[in-house]
Request: fold
Amino acid sequence: MTIKTLYDKIVDLHTIEKLSADGIERLVYIDRTVVNEYTSPQAFSLLRENGLKVWRPSATLGTIDHVNSSAPDRTEFPTEENACTQVKYLIKNGSDFDFEVLNNGNPKQGIEHVVMVERGKVLPGMLIGAGDSHTAMYGALGAVAYGIGTSDIYHYLATSTLRYKKLKNMRVRVTGVRGASVTAKDIVLFIVKKLGAGGCTGHCVEFCGPVISDLSVEERLTLCNMAVECAARSSIIAPDQKVFDYLEGREFAPKGEMWSKAVEFWKTLKSDEDAVFDKDVEIDITGLEPSVTWGTSPDQNCSISESIPDPASISDPKIRADYERVLNYMGLGAGQKIKGLPITHAFIGSCTNSRIEDLRAAAEVLKGKKLAPGVKAFVVPGSTQVRVQAEKEGIDKIFKDAGWEWRNSGCSLCLAMNGDILGAGDRCISSKDVRAFKPEHIWQVRRWLHWQVLKVLSLTSERSKSWKNLKNSLQLQLRCPLLISTRTSSCRRHS
Reply:
């Protein structure tokens, strides 16, 4: 019997054919995907150009989350023309290709990764590809999941397969004593700081250890979501009883006899005892405090009792120059205490920290308190179902009483393509990484992204001839330009 890691087991189970002698290049079966209005238009345009259908419509879910407003009074369709075009195109695609699309007003609408999990669309042992790097979040449930480009979305929709380059294995064992105020976000920021922003490049990271076992499923989702911040392509945690309890009874989870058989199989999903990892790291979190990022990269973070580092203390000239640039951009000084740093905005939301446990924890802190003068704050639940649940528990009232704005579900500041944008000189403390664009750059990026999307919605017949037809899944070599993914750290300043 071959000794394998959990990642290897799942990839091997989904391998249709090895395409290289070393087995790294493979054709793999993909169980499910989720598409949004923002990263999928090219894929559906290519299906139409080549006269193809979606191979398994039931395995595809569409949700409006990227360009839709989170405003309390939002309408079914965005008021901004380009955004409205994108939303209507995804709805049309759902109708034409027979898959479910969740638009504003649908009680099941939400951020794609939140919705996939809460509906039981993600199950242990699955292999999932979707058009966003934070797809890696699904690893918290024992699935292998990773972000893919638009041409890969097209390939998946047409064939349920993808060409895949197998990753290396990395194990991160987290030990020590977790402080009472330390969250999963603090833990993953500490891991990113220890490993570096590029420390997991080319790897699937398996998180394990007593600290990981102690985390709730929703905390594990935060952890795996942010594994990409140290350049991991995928992340995974072996499923346990917490995961089984979390999934039982969800809309798309197995039922009856199939549930029992599924759990029996899921219990086998773990790395073999003597499995060898390409990298093996142990990180002790004893003494860890709540943390915040101070720069433009997630590994530039410190605890709330620490000071911002002095670039002069950095021996590497490249890193030292980067620190100097970042501090100048952020308007911070070397040795400055992070605690007490003035902010203009606060934001809770995104697929990283917008689930019901996150909102409960934030409400507990806010209870009986008021926003400081001059600070604007808003909370964006991860889905409509999360929003409704929070309102049932009175969490919305706690936020409102504290002076926060209670909003609708969407990507919001994570993407800043939906009206939720900071202004010049603003500094925001966020549960999610908010992109630090200069104001003029925001509009440049928005125009470019909208142009890319609108361009494929009106492809000429001449251009369509330039694309290779899909002959079979092995011959497809399309590589469309990738849309920008925006993510940085938790305390951002626009200048």
Confidence is low (pLDDT under 50) at residues 434-489.
